[in-house]
Amino acid sequence: MTLQLPHAVFKTISRAHRSLTIPSWTVARRSFSVEFSPQTYAPDTQYSSDHVSKLLKTSILSEFSEQEAKTRIELAACYRLFGLKGWNENIYGHLTAKVHENDGSESFLINPFGLLYSEITASSLIKVGADGSVKHPGVTDGLFGINDAGFVIHSAIHKARPDLQSVMHCHYPSAAGVSSLKQGFLELAQTSHQVGPIAYHDYQGVVVDRNERKSLAEDMGDKNIMFLRNHGVITAGSSVGGAWYLMYQLLAATDIQSHASACALGDAENLNIPSDRTVNKTYEVMHKKGFSGAAYGLKELSAYMRLLDKLDASYRT
């Protein structure tokens, strides 16, 4: 059936249709400067996706010894895993690994201060000397520099502890929360028992004062975990995988503590804490009796590197 409109109504609609005009703003053309492209714009061109991506696609691993290339790949993998698990805080935080120079001196690798952890590649890591001098800028070639707090924390521990290859630091919320508790870390569950002895360092503000390196090293002592009170946590190991897996277990343990404390309704009497003997037995099995059949962290990091290879293997670049 065809709808028949009254003649008067049809004439009114027709007049309205003829009077319609396209607003000027819909057809106005804007002239952009030659330098501006909506597809590549960034607040600062040197930090744009286009520019940074080109840098990060370059591999310079052939410039380094085989051992340093391996260390770079492992550390880059750890940065990607931190990002994947949400252990980073924006572009902040830092993980380092020690490398040996041809002259016998030691340096450490650290992230460029401006890359997301998901962008880190083996060739982008910056090599820093014990005095803070940049021994190699990586493929970003000084574009980002390094986090000064990262240098202060890591240089202090690497210098004081020649037995450590890797040091890792983060502000993961449950770890920062535990670092703010008077009672500190509680050995509540099996995961908690596996991490081992804990050290504490009192809060002195953002760690940029080089004089703080002395107390950082003294407080760390011979332990591989240190809570920076009201700040975050540090783990360290004789291998990159060891430091990473220790962080994995420690952060899981702080999550457990957060959940248990909530369930206990703030009353410590509601928490069941095992005996020191049981706690020590668990630690011994994990760290000194080769529970996994390999060095601590070796199988674990290898498994997660396989995961990364399936998701995005560009960390190896």
Automatic annotation (TrEMBL):
GO MF terms held by the record: actin filament binding
Source taxonomy: Eukaryota, Fungi, Dikarya, Ascomycota, Pezizomycotina
Protein name, as recorded: Adducin
Family matches, as SUPFAM superfamilies: AraD/HMP-PK domain-like
Residue ranges constituting the Class II aldolase/adducin N-terminal domain according to the UniProt record: 73-258
UniProt GO cellular component terms: cytoskeleton
Organism, scientific name: Talaromyces pinophilus
Pfam families: Aldolase_II
